[in-house]
Amino acid sequence: MIEQAAGYRYGRADGLDVLAELEPWVARNLDRHLAATPTCYPHQHVPWGIGSGFAGPLGGRPWQPEEATLPQAVRDALIVNPLTEDNLPSYHHKIATRFGREGAWGTWVHRWNAEEDRYAHALRAYLTTTRAVDPVALEQCMRHLCRGFAYDRPSVLHALAYVTVQELATRVAHRNAGQHCPDAAGAALMARVAADENLHMIFYRDVCRTAADILPDLFLRTYSEVLEAFRMPGQGTAELTARAARIAAAGISDVRVHHEQVVLPLVRHLGLMDRTGLGPVGEQAHEALARYLEDLRRRSASLEALRPRLTSPARAGVPTGRDGHGGG
């Protein structure tokens, strides 16, 4: 059993112990993931037949604003989601340096990377083929990628907790964007991506469940810290903040969605509020988590009370709250 030392949270040596302790469960969940993942060819979900070239060296026609026929909030979601997916190299680096590249952990990290990579390509192909957005503006948003993804928590448990929340938030963002998308091909693509993201979430969630059983006090503290500080990749950049505001106003992804469709399902499945026999660290974390959940509930209720005003045509955007916007 791993010693619950005070320096565990940031100790790399202790982190390696966690990797070894969880390796059998990682292998088990990896086998299940491979068996459950259907054969999927993302290119089959892109309506290539309606595509045409753009202005440039090959002599296509310029993009025109009237070609953007999808609702503004859906277009925003379909830009934000691929941009966060495009940051995959940065995410891969972060988890590979924490989980390693060997054994079951390494096999999972590389498999996850390969599956995620397909989504970014398929989403970008859909946007350009259907001419749903200005491709030049989409490319100009690449400066988001130049910033990379910063995550300053070095421990394995923090990384596991974060990716579990992030994968479920990503699944919800894709699924809800698809449900708001009036184009059948776009809706089908979003549903396909969301289904695969859900399998990633299940993998991480179930490994987290094992970690919670092994180290209940430390895991509870870690998960509480991650939930309170959670941000989707890309938050803080001006172009994504404005789009996230419109996404929230439309109800695609906001603090209510984050509360009801991300945080509460994870807390319940992991049994975080039902853990007993905790030590002082776990009890303090239990109280902190309860306060966070209540604060999130209140902010969610406040947002719903404001919803009619936020969706009025006169409003250009609304604050999303610190937890809620879509991503990948």
Automatic annotation (TrEMBL):
SUPFAM superfamilies: Ferritin-like. InterPro entries: Fatty_acid_desaturase-2, Ferritin-like_SF, RNR-like. Residues 307-328 are annotated as: Disordered. Pfam families: FA_desaturase_2. Keywords: Fatty acid biosynthesis, Fatty acid metabolism, Iron, Lipid biosynthesis, Lipid metabolism, Metal-binding, Oxidoreductase. The keyword Iron applies. Its cofactor is Fe(2+). Coiled coil: none annotated. Belongs to the fatty acid desaturase type 2 family. Homodimer. This is Acyl-ACP desaturase. The lineage of its organism: Bacteria, Bacillati, Actinomycetota, Actinomycetes, Kitasatosporales.
